[in-house]
Amino acid sequence: MRRSVVRISAPGGGYDPSGDRFWGSGFFVAPGWVLTCAHVVGNGGGGVLSGDTAIDVTDWRERTRPGRVALVLPLPADPADPPRRWELPDLALVEVAGADDAECLWLSDRSAVVPARISLHGWSRETGEPGLRFGVGTATGSDGSDGGAMLLRGEIPVAGCSGGPVVDVARGAVIGVSKGRGQGTAGLAVPVTALRRMANDRPGRERLHALVRAHDLHHLSRYRAVGTRGSWTGVQHALRPPGAGAFTPVLRTHLFARLAELTPPATPGEVMTLVDAVKRRVIQDPYQPGTEHDPRTWREGVGLLYDLRDTEGQGPGRDLELEAVLLYAARVAAAVSLAGRPEDEKPLKELSGWLTGREEPLQAVIREEIDQILHGGEDGPGEPSGPLAPEPRPGTVELRKTVHRKIVPDVPAVRARADVLVEIDPLLYGDSYPWRVKLLREDDLVTLRGDDRGVPRARLRETLLEPIAEAVRQGDVGEHLAAVEVVLPRELFDEPLDSWQLAQPCTAEDGTPLLDPDTLPLGERRVVVLRDRRRRDVPAIPEWRRRWGGAQRGPLTAVPLRREAPLRGHDGPGRESGRSAYGRLSDAEDTAVPVYCGPVSGGPGATAMEAALAAGHAVVIWRRCATGHTDCAEFHHRASRLVGEARTAAGLHRRIRSLRIRSGDPDDPDPDALWARSIALLFDSPDHPPLPEAPLHAPGVRPDPLS
User: Fold this and answer.
1) How far apart are CA 34 and CA 66, in angstroms?
2) CA separation for the pair 150, 432 (Å, rounded)
3) What is each CA distance from 628 to 286, 599, 675, in whole angstroms?
4) Local structure of residue 590 (DSSP, 8 states)
5) 436: how many CB neighbours lie within 10 A of its CB?
């Protein structure tokens, strides 16, 4: 431990025996990389935080090297004036020159398992001169999945230990970074899973994966050099309880290094899709994922496959953990190979040979399944190796060399892991809208974030952006993107939800704007549809189900939402009454789609929308802008053609997304698509997710606390 923990000082402070310029602690997580707290390096101000000014990093041998801050989470609004109290996650990465030979600690591959017995380590001037200190205690509170801090009970970190490691002593892994003192007798630590925040944008994602790759390759190299006596693999081996499964720390070290060589996952959804599939296969009972996880690396998927048990909590007589991990690794290899990147070919062959050459006890059906996952797409039977190879004939001796076969998996039917359901409830108390963001999967619904107290309408966008971004990361799998379905009150139907951007636009070093898909408006990147909140409180009326079925079958036709709008415009005279609109829209074919050139959250547009929903229409197209256009006739003509070309409700998505891209180009909008600016789509299934079987009733009036 002491060989990995460093002290961090102001420039020139590393050689000062008095420690007057000592700031705090840190520790090596990969050769040349130190993890610490942002508030530790924040002592140096803007020059240090930007990486322009080097700091001193001193190791256990009193060797001082220059280090430059490469990443700060979060970066303060004014780096030249850092805050007194740093917001979570309060982490920083420092690149240390000439430290390629550093000994590194083992980062946990899973969220912290709390409560946990821990030790914490760091440098301190408590006795005068700087010296290494350690303490023991218990970590409680957050496991890192919610972005909160862990509470440390026992020996509280002393001044200077901030930035040092918090180690789970039962598992031999770093689970947190010491942040300092909390309230009362508690200390605070940041879970190492907070590093996932790095991967929320493309540059950070590449940095995180480079760090994890260097970390895992270092530990395999270290194990190969010194074995179990002087490596973290050996520490974990010594900590294993009697009767532990066959997935040993040695296997884990080898597997993580091989996974680290592969192209990393782009989203948590890519990892969780494979984890969910393996759990369903190994547990072999109806499996409903509980807590949603946020893995950003292939190794974290392995961390989610520990301690599998059957439904009665008893082991089924075989090593579920090893089966699950090897099946998962095979699925990772198959998923990466389907992308066809040349740089993955060699590491994939290495991983394939390692997987099929395992000598651990596995059921024959699991070995066959691994081979099928890896090589099921070959034109002819390959030549299996290792335990999959056929037995030699009796009386003969056959020497075999392990064959690293190219991975040729079957091409599975891949889709998004889940769609995103954003629920905004009607006003209950005051001017605040309660909200929830959920993952809408084929057979279940999982709430990720929410606020029953709600926020005012003006704050909906800023409040929902990060929860929606988190949800789409969980839902996206490769090129298969999660749709965003927004269930909201009718007075919010004209909110510009499709124009929200989940990430800020990025630029090149010379200031040139970069076209990054992650920064595009939601509706230009993925399917964005609206759904009606009011009619989800009661069982679906027959007309709704009938018209939804008609829209799915097609062929679609268009009908004006307001009868007079195509000729007189959205604000013209002779407005149709609500009852008249209801009768006309009720008589329309089940395949008819109401279209309208104006807004529907108020005025005559709202009256007509009420009529359409009462008549059971499940698909409606309109334009949410309120003023400034006189092309209603053109809109209705073009929308009618759009509906006819789509033929079915599902056919609308690609066409509407294309129109949003073409009409929303800030530099050169397509004149032929300008009619579709601010186009909105109601796409409201009565079946997914299921509606209640009985009506729901709103709570009563909130009692006056003063009465």
Assistant:
1) 12
2) 31
3) 55, 12, 12
4) T
5) 17
CA distances for 520 relative to 265, 418, 483, 486, 677, angstroms? 21, 20, 14, 18, 16
Which residues 6+ apart lie within 8 Å of 301 measured at CB? 271, 272, 274, 275, 295, 328, 332
Select from 303, 65, 120, 102 the least CA-distant residue to 219: 102
Q: Which two tokens stand for residue 372?
A: 């099928």
Q: Which of 232, 242, 124, 254 is nearest to 174 (CA)?
A: 232
Strands 116-124 and 131-141: antiparallel
For tokens 């509906």, name the residue.
643
pLDDT of residue 290: 60
List the domains of the chain with CATH numbers: 5-96 (2.40.10.10), 116-196 (2.40.10.10), 240-388 (no CATH), 527-683 (no CATH)
Question: How far apart (Å, rounded) are the C-alpha atoms in residues 376 and 334?
Answer: 10
Given a contact cutoff of 8 angstroms between Cβ atoms, the answer to whether 596 and 623 are in contact is yes
Q: How far apart are CA 606 and CA 510, in angstroms?
A: 48
Determine phi and psi for 199, rounding to 5 degrees.
Answer: -85, 10
Query: What's the CA gap between 595 and 545, in Å, rounded?
Result: 20
pLDDT in the model for residue 609:
97
CB atoms within 10 A of CB 284: 12
Residue 604: CB partners within 8 Å, gap ≥ 6?
562, 570, 575, 576
Q: Which helix (H) or strand (E) holds 133?
A: strand 131-141
| Short-list 62, 52, 27, CA closest to 175 | 27
Q: Could you give the angle at the alpha carbon of 650 between the alpha carbons of 648 and 653, nearest 5°?
A: 120
Q: What is the CA radius of gyration of the chain?
A: 29
Q: What is the dihedral of CA 28, 30, 33, 39, to 10 degrees?
A: -50
pLDDT digits (tens, 9 = 90+) for 357-406: 877 778 888 889 999 999 876 654 444 444 444 444 443 333 334 455 67
Check residue 172 and give left, alpha or beta (phi > 0: left; psi -120 to 50: alpha).
left
Residue with tokens 């090893």: 322
Q: How far is CA 393 from CA 364, 396, 398, 613, in A?
A: 20, 6, 9, 74
CA-based end-to-end distance of the chain: 61
Contact call for residues 446 and 509 (beta carbons, < 8 A): no
Question: Cα separation of 268 and 273, whole Å?
Answer: 9
Using alpha carbons only, what angle is made at residue 555 by residues 551 and 557, rounded to the nearest 5 degrees? 80
| C-alpha span between 215 and 526 (Å, rounded) | 35
Whole-angstrom Cα distance, residue 69 to residue 64? 16
Written as six digits, the tokens of 380 are: 């002819």
ω into residue 115 within 30 of 0, thus cis?
yes
Structure tokens at 649: 């409700």
Q: Which residues contact 52 (CB under 8 A, 6 or more apart)?
A: none
| Residue type for position 266 | A
Q: What is the spatial distance between Cα 393 and Cα 488, in angstroms, rounded to a whole number? A: 70
Q: What local confidence, expressed as pLDDT, does residue 203 receive?
A: 76
Pairing of strands 592-596, 557-560: parallel
**Positions of the chain with pLDDT under 50:** 309-317, 380-402, 696-707
Question: Which helix (H) or strand (E) element contains residue 58?
Answer: strand 55-58
Where do we find the tokens 């009720």? 586
- Identify which of 607, 605, 604 has the alpha carbon closest to the alpha carbon of residue 595: 605
Strand residues in 406-524 grouped as ranges (E) = 419-424, 432-440, 445-456, 484-488
**What is residue 380's predicted lDDT score, i.e. its pLDDT?**
45
Element (H, E) at 187: strand 187-191
Q: What residues contact 654, with CB distance under 8 A and at least 6 apart?
A: none
